[in-house]
Structures are given as C-alpha cells and as structure tokens.
C-alpha cells in the first residue's frame, strides 16, 4: 500500500497555495532546502513525480494535482477528528483564533465575544485584524481558526479546504457633505451622483465594490481621492471633498457627513465566515460561529 505522510502532504498543499518553494518555506517556518527535500521524499514514497522544472522555478505535475484532490478529504477528516477529540477532552472550553477585517471587529466580533463571556466563559477568543484576502491565507496556514471576510474576495464554494457561512448582508449607504445639494433629496439614487467626485481606495475589495455598484447604476465613478481607512474617507466627505459609498457597519457611526440610504437600489456587500473544512464540528468553533450569527442577526 502507498505510504501517505501527512506532514509532507501539508507541505505539498502549501506549495500549491503559495506557488514557490521560498514562499512555502516562509509560511511553514522551514528552509527552502528542507521543503525541497521533504517533497523529494514524498515523491519517492508515492512513486510518482510531484514537481517539474519550469525555468528557475518548479510547478506541480498532474500527479501532484491528483494527490492534492484526495489530500483535501484527508485533511477535512483530520479536522473532524481533532474537533471530536477537543470536544471530548475540553467540553465547551477551548481557544479560537479569529482573523477579521477591520470593520467586522467592532460590528460582529466584539458583540460575539461579549455574549460568549456570559454564556461560554470557557471559550477563549484571540482576534487578529487582517485584510479580507489575507484572512484566508492565515486560515489555510493554521494561523487562525476562523476567518471573517467579504464574499467578493472569498474562495469559491467549490474550494474543498473551507466551510463557508454567509453571516450578513451589509447594506451600502452613501455619505454626502453636509451642504451637498442632494443631502435632503426625497428619492436619492446613485445615478444622481454620477457627476460628483468620489472617494474610495485605489485597490482592494472596497475599490471593487464601489466601482461595481456605480457601474450597475450606469456610470463609472470619478475617483477624486484615494483612501482605505474609514476615518480618512468620512473626514474628507465631511470636508466637502467628495462623496463615498459606506457600509452600514461604518455609516451608523458617522458624525460629520450626511448618510443617506439607497432604498431603491439596495447595494450591499456580503460578510462571510469560513473555517477549515471539518473544524466546524469543534465545540468551541461551533459556539463562536453561533455567537457571530447572533451578532449579525441583531444588526439593523
């Protein structure tokens, strides 16, 4: 029977995700030579070539991709085994590390942690702020146990590494300067702002979300200023420098600009929770997911 080495399979999976031996070594806290040696040994154990040279780099062979398809099922089953063992040994106790984008921390994570302190005091939460796309790399590498991200930058549902749960549809409101001529308009639409200067990030999910919403309304927003932090964006809007789309998670706390609900178009972003497939069975992870669901359901 073929010998399957879990440690070496994890290295192979990380190489598939990180693309280079050097990046794989950094992610796993190994040296590049150790990564190469482990993969050479795995190839010998399985009896098939796993890597082939491509210029100065390497790429996975078809046999390696076949192995990885089966590996995902193996790792999911191991996560379930760890979850059952954790439940047996610790009951409702355990540590859950959450990677979350900035606006999700006060809006979802903090209320969930507060609720768990009352109902599940044995569950300890550690929070790590991370960009939406980065959280999945942290989850895959085992650096966090649960990732909060946006659907626009989440792996597809076909990705066998993760179990995903849509937590929240977060409406997008428009922030206007206090003296904007449409600040009190009865039926404001995005298209009404097509000629205004817009403020949004130069890259990343929020840039894409803003452009997509405006393009659906029939125009391409003119980016007058680029910023990624909501404090900066709202300060510039309040100073009359432009308009911006703002998620309800943020707009509810805005004090300078005028915030208007786009009732007719109802643009929104979707907040996703993800765990490594199989780990959702762990009692502590299940409690955190439930607390996040409740926090999301309690939002306006």
Q: What is the CA-CA span between the terminal residues?
A: 57 Å
**In one word, what is the shape?**
globular
Total beta-strand segments: 11
Helical segment count: 10
**What order do the helices and strands follow?**
HHHEEHEHEHEEEHEHEHEEH
Helices and strands: which structural class? alpha/beta
**Share in β-strands:** 15-25%
Low-confidence stretches: none
**Radius of gyration (Å):** 23 Å
Q: How helical, in percent, are the residues?
A: 40-55%
Sheet with the most strands, sense and barrel status = 7 strands, mixed
Round the mean pLDDT to the nearest integer and report it.
87
What does the model show?
- The protein is of the alpha/beta class.
- It is built from 10 helices and 11 strands.
- The strands form 3 sheets. Strands 3, 4, 5, 6, 9, 10 and 11 form a 7-stranded mixed β-sheet that branches. Strands 1-2 form a two-stranded antiparallel ribbon.
- Helix 1 (6-18) packs across helix 2 (21-28), helix 1 (6-18) packs across helix 3 (32-46) and helix 5 (104-119) packs across helix 10.
- 38% of the residues are buried.
Give me a quick take on this structure:
The chain has 300 residues and is of the alpha/beta class. Helix content is 44%, strand content 22%.
Task: Annotate the secondary structure layout.
Elements: H1 6-18, H2 21-28, H3 32-46, E1 51-54, E2 57-60, H4 62-90, E3 94-100, H5 104-119, E4 123-129, H6 132-141, E5 146-150, E6 162-176, E7 197-199, H7 205-216, E8 222-225, H8 230-238, E9 244-247, H9 248-251, E10 258-261, E11 268-276, H10 283-297
Parallel strand pairs: 3-4, 3-5, 7-8
Antiparallel strand pairs: 1-2, 5-11, 6-9, 6-10, 6-11
């Amino acid at each position: 029977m073929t010998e399957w080495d879990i440690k070496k399979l994890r290295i192979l999976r990380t190489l598939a995700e990180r693309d280079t031996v050097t990046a794989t070594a950094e992610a796993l806290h190994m040296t590049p030579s150790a990564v190469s040696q482990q993969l050479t040994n795995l190839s010998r154990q399985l009896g098939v070539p796993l890597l082939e040279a491509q210029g100065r780099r390497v790429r996975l062979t078809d046999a390696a991709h076949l192995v990885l398809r089966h590996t995902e099922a193996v790792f999911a089953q191991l996560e379930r085994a760890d979850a059952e063992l954790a439940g047996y040994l610790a009951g409702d106790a355990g540590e859950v590390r959450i990677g979350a984008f900035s606006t999700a921390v006060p809006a979802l994570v903090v209320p969930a942690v507060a609720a768990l302190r009352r109902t599940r005091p044995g569950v300890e939460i550690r929070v790590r702020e991370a960009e939406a796309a980065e959280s999945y790399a942290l989850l895959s590498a085992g650096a966090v146990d649960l990732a909060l991200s946006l659907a626009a930058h989440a792996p597809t549902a076909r990705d066998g590494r993760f179990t995903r749960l849509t937590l929240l549809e977060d409406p997008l409101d428009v922030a206007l300067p206090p003296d904007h001529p449409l600040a009190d308009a009865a039926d404001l639409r995005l298209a009404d702002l097509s000629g205004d200067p817009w403020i949004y990030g130069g890259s990343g999910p929020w840039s894409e979300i803003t452009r997509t919403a405006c393009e659906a309304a029939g125009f391409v927003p003119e980016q007058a200023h680029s910023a990624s932090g909501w404090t900066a964006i709202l300060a510039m809007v309040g100073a009359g420098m432009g308009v911006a789309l703002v998620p309800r998670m943020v707009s509810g706390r805005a004090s300078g600009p005028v915030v208007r609900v786009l009732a007719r178009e109802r643009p929104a972003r979707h907040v996703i929770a993800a765990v490594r497939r199989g780990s959702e069975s762990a009692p502590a992870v299940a409690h955190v997911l439930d607390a996040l669901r409740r926090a999301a359901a309690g939002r306006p």
